[in-house]
Amino acid sequence: MWMAIIISAIILLVLLIVALSANVMLHIFYEEKRWRIKVSIVGVVVYKKRFTQHKPIQTTPGEELKATLDTMTADLRKLRHSFPYLLQITRTAELHQLRWHTTIGTGDAAAAGTLSGVIWTLKGIAQQLISQNIQVTKPFDIQVNPVFHAAVFDSNFQCIVSIRTGKAMQAIISNVRR
To answer: What is the largest CA-CA distance in the chain?
Structure first.
């Protein structure tokens, strides 16, 4: 009995010290009013959804947009107290690979060009935030490919991250105690 407890404690200690590596993939695809979304972690699909868009995407009045942004801001404020603990986890994490390829088209060349510029800007901001908070071992592979003659959206995001299990547990326990 004591031997099993000692072996279990040693295995738990090794798991706390060793870095766990996870391969995360997010793929979003749109073509001809059909959407496909797939999320997989370590090769296991954890979420998969297909659906058809029946109504065209319509512009939103300013009041509705402001209400949506206010709701999102309120939700982010609720999560704000967790940010120091998340940063504590991410500072010890290592990003081994990040690949993010996006193909975007609207059917209108001017709109597709503008939209691809906006996507480049958002990806650049995300790249800077990640680089500041996580140790990066390889350069990012980020691409945006505009399609000028068709309405299409295809975004494929893959990354491999190593996180020290002990540091993650320490941050979670600190957050729970607070």
So the answer is: 72
Indicate yes or no: pTM above 0.70: no
Instruction: State the 10-residue block means of pLDDT for the chain, 178 residues long.
Output: 74 60 72 79 77 66 74 75 70 85 88 91 91 89 92 87 72 67
**Where do runs of H (alpha helix) occur along 106-145?**
109-133
- The percent helix, strand, coil of the chain (3-state, each to 5) is 45, 35, 15
- DSSP 8-class letter at 107: S
Q: How many CB atoms lie within 10 A of CB 89?
A: 19
C-alpha 141/C-alpha 43 separation (Å) is: 20
Query: How far apart are alpha carbons 115 and 104 in whole angstroms?
Result: 8
Strands 151-164 and 94-106: antiparallel
Q: Map residue 108 onto helix, strand or coil.
A: coil
> What burial class does residue 28 get, using C-beta atoms within 10 Å of its C-beta: 0-12 exposed, 13-18 middle, 19+ buried?
middle
